[in-house]
Amino acid sequence: MNRSESVKKIQDRIAETCQRCGRDPLEIKLVAVSKMFPAEAVKEVYDAGLRCFGESRAQEFRDKHPLLPEDVEWHFIGHLQTNKIKYVVPNAELVHSVDSLHLATALSDYARKKEVDIAVLMEVNTSEEASKFGTTAESAVDTYHKICELPGLAAKGLMTIAPYSDDEKEIRDAFQRLRAIRERLQNDLSSDRTGVLSMGMSHDFEYAIMEGSTMVRIGSAIFGPRGR
User: Fold this and answer.
1) Which of 191, 201, 125, 187 is CA-nearest to residue 156?
2) At what angle do helices 101-114 and 140-148 cross, to 10 degrees?
3) Which phi and psi (to 5°) does residue 5 adopt?
4) Which residues contact 28 (CB under 8 A, 6 or more apart)?
5) pTM of the complete model
6) What is the mean pLDDT of the segment spanning 195-206?
7) 24 to 6, 52, 213, 215, 217: CA distances (angstroms)
C-alpha cells in the first residue's frame, strides 16, 4: 500500500469510528507524524492531501520544515528541552508536549523576548508510567491554570499518550482520565483554552476518538515502519 492509499484508509477509519460513536469527522484533526522520515516522504503525504504534520525532534524539525511547502501546518509533539526551543518556535503552530511548568515558563520567556505568541498543549502522564513525560493527573488542573497565566502562551488544551498495550480498558482509562481533567478545567476556563484533546496514535486512535479526542497523531499507519 502506498502512502496515498494509507492516508485514505486512515481517513476512512476515522469517519467510520465517528459514525459508530455519533461524532462528526470534521471534529477530528489528523496530524501525520513525520519524524524520522525525509522531506520526500512528507511531500508524498502532502500530495495526498494532508497539510498538518508532527515532528518530535527539534533539530530534525529545524532542518526539515524549510524543505516543504509554506502551507504545511507544523506541530511539535516530542519532548522539548529548553535549550532547543529556538529550533521549534516560531515555526511550529502548536507545541503538544508542554510537560512541566518549568518548560512552560521557558517558552513564555522566549515568547516575550521574541514578541511572539506560542500555542501549546499541556502533556499529562495519565498512565503514570515512569518512561513517559507529563504532569501527573493529580497536579494537572493546578498546573494548567498556572500555564494559562503565563504571558506569550496560548494554552489550547491537553495531550496524553496511552500505554502501548493490547488491553482496551487500560488504553481507554488513560484517555478517560484526560477527558475528565478537561471537564474540570471547563468549569473555569473558556472553550478556547480547553478545546483540544490530543490523544490517539496509530494503534489506538479509534479508542481515543470514542473517548473524545479532537486530534489524533498518526505516524506508522501512514508512513510505514520507521527506519525504512
Assistant:
1) 191
2) 10
3) -65, -35
4) 14, 18, 209, 213, 214, 215, 216
5) 0.95
6) 97
7) 21, 19, 12, 13, 18
Question: Closest Cα to residue 62, out of 49, 50, 74?
Answer: 74
DSSP type of residue 190: -
Longest dimension (CA), the chain: 47
The CATH classification number of 3-223 equals 3.20.20.10
* DSSP 8-state symbol, 166: S
* 3-state DSSP of 44-108: HHHHCCCCEEEECCHHHHHHHHHHCCCCCEEEECCCCCHHHHHHHCCCCCEEEEECCHHHHHHHH
Neighbour count for residue 187 (Cβ, 10 Å):
8
pLDDT tens digits for range 42-54: 999 999 999 999 9
Residue 2 region by backbone torsions, left for phi larger than 0, else alpha for psi between -120 and 50, else beta: beta
Give yes or no for a contact between 90 and 120, defined as CB atoms under 8 angstroms apart: no
Contacts of residues 177-180 at CB distance under 8 Å and 24 or more positions apart, as own/partner, are 177/124, 177/126, 177/137, 178/124, 178/126, 179/211, 179/212
3-state helix, strand, coil split of the chain in percent (to 5) is 45, 20, 35
Q: Letter for the amino acid at 89?
A: V
Separation CA 177–CA 175 (nearest Å): 5
Q: What is the pLDDT of residues 121-155, one digit of tens each?
A: 999 999 988 889 999 999 999 999 999 999 999 99
CA distance 15 to 227: 29
According to DSSP, the residues that pair with 84 across neighbouring strands are: none
Rounded Cα distance, 167 and 173, in Å: 10
